[in-house]
Amino acid sequence: MKLTAKTKQYSLGKACGCTKSLQGTCGINYRAG
Amino acid sequence: MYSLSNSEVVCVAYHTPSQSVVFLEGDSAEVWWRIYTANGDCEPALKYIRENGTFDGAEEGSRAVLTGFLEDLRRSNLVGEGSDRASIESCVSNGTDPTQNPELEIGQFMADHHVLYSLVLELTYRCNERCIHCYLPSDTRTVELTTLQIESLLREFADLGGLQLQLTGGELFVRKDILEILAIAKAHGFATSIISNLTLMNDSILAALADLRPRSVGCSIYGATAELHDSITTIKGSFDKSVRSLRALRSAGIPVVIKSPLLRSTAPHWREIERLAQDLDCEYQFDLSITAKNDGGLAPVSHRVEDSAALKDIFASRYYKLYAGEEPMSALTSPSPDAGLCGAGAAGLCISPDGTVRPCIGLNVPLGKWPETTLSEIWRTSKFFSEFGAIRLRDIEECRDCSDFVFCSRCPGAWHAEHGDFCKPTSYACKLAHTWADVQRGLAASRKGEER
Q1: Per-residue model confidence as pLDDT tens digits over B413-448
Q2: ipTM of the complex in this document
Q3: Tens-place pLDDT, residues B186-212
Q4: How many whole angstroms separate alpha carbon B155 and alpha carbon B322?
Q5: Residue B198 near residue B206, CB atoms below 8 Å
Q6: Is the pTM higher than 0.95?
Q7: Is 60 exceeded by the pLDDT of residue B79?
Q8: Which of A12, A27, B241, B383 satisfies CB 3.0 to 4.6 Å to B257 for a cystine?
Q9: Whose CA is closest to B186, among B161, B158, B218?
């Protein structure tokens, strides 16, 4: 059994995007088909 | 922890002071969940490993697996006392490649499994500022959910698997019960984001926020000077109050993002706002998509940045160098007409102050009214999710043959607010996409020229 917990840093800004909501929310189903 | 219909098990865990998130699958999720629910007692986790793993020496082998896993978790600050401040600051200041957004990956996973994962809760439409571009209805008087109702709503959200919560307004700190609401969010262990102008933040609210350990606090700042910022909020003294609170939040170790909707009068000064954010040790986010009001009013639209030179300056900045994996977006030549419109309702909902349920804060389409209809019922039965989710770019006449779609920060909610149709782009959305594409193509061409 192999157990892994890879942590990633999340960014609050550093990108353009909707300022009304959580960054990235609208990116779901967004760019790729 | 999520047990999905295909018997897949996953966990999402946040450590907000270090702005880190971990997504655990399968056995890793099972073991983490046992450690978490046993308040750090590892016996149930060991039992699971022994029963589900294959080892030469069951006891030694299972302990070695658990020890390695605990070391991973300790490095992630998910177990152990306190956290390594130096490594956290290093991680945060190095930032994250915005195209490698772990939260977006998790959101996409939840959307694929139709999990109600995030909730935007508009606590009030009342506000002590009067921003010239505000998208909220002109008449902000509305019935608001009570503290007890909010407690009940958030309990239902948690029971459905909700983890990400955004509390916003209006200005949420005008609510007399804001401390109680923050305590409810803490009790459920949500990864909570707060959006506020912070002018009403006092010591009690600061203490409650520090106790909540929110995922982030976002605050709109429109200029790096009081004169410019206050000209947008139309409230003298608002800049000084917001900045004072931003400093206090950062001193308390709370992650803060300065949000700047860029307007005609403020866009030329965006670099000064970026510098202010750096000076205040905050992250920075801006947005060109100024939308019509939720009630269809078009007053905010007149404040949009229309000047081509100003737009090109912004689109040439590092914020707009988009990549798809290793590939620059500008190098992509075959847009996919199979892309969906956006993520509205994909893994989350928005609740208006009176309990109206909508698919997104930006998309003003009512799906039902809480508490008359439960979140669960709306999430299970509303036809919106399948119908909206089925719309593809190829279904939109203006988008079908557009070669610049990868540069389009499209917001069907903004289109809907402006002319009542979420399948009809605004001319401004198209202008932004074409300008961004032109700038990026120009930059790519000059890079090729330099390489020769």
Answers
A1: 999 999 999 999 999 999 999 998 899 888 777 777
A2: 0.86
A3: 999 999 999 999 999 999 999 999 999
A4: 38
A5: no
A6: no
A7: yes
A8: A12
A9: B158
Write out residues 366-425 of B within 8 Å (CB-CB) of A.
Answer: 389, 392-393, 406, 409, 411
Taking the CA of residue B65 and the nearest CA in chain A, the distance in Å comes to 7
What CA–CA distance (Å, rounded) separates B173 from B194? 10
Q: Got the DSSP string for B224-278? A: SSHHHHHHHH--TTHHHHHHHHHHHHHHTT--EEEEEE--TTTGGGHHHHHHHHH
Which of B154, B31, B73, B163 shows the shortest CA–CA distance to B110?
B163
Within 8 A of B393 by CB-CB distance, chain A residues are 33
Higher pLDDT among residues B452 and B377, named by residue: B377
**How far is the C-alpha of B139 from the C-alpha of B262, rounded, in Å?**
24
> Which residues of A fall within a CB distance of 8 Å from B346?
28-29
CB contact under 8 A, B285 and A16: yes
Strand partners, B21: A8, B14
Instruction: Tell me if chain A has a CB within 8 Å of the CB of B287.
Output: yes
Task: List the Cα angle B276/B322/A16 in 5-degree steps.
Answer: 35
Neighboring chain A residues of B66 at a CB cutoff of 8 Å: 3
pLDDT, one tens digit per residue, over B108-151 is 889 989 999 999 999 999 999 999 999 998 888 889 999 999 99
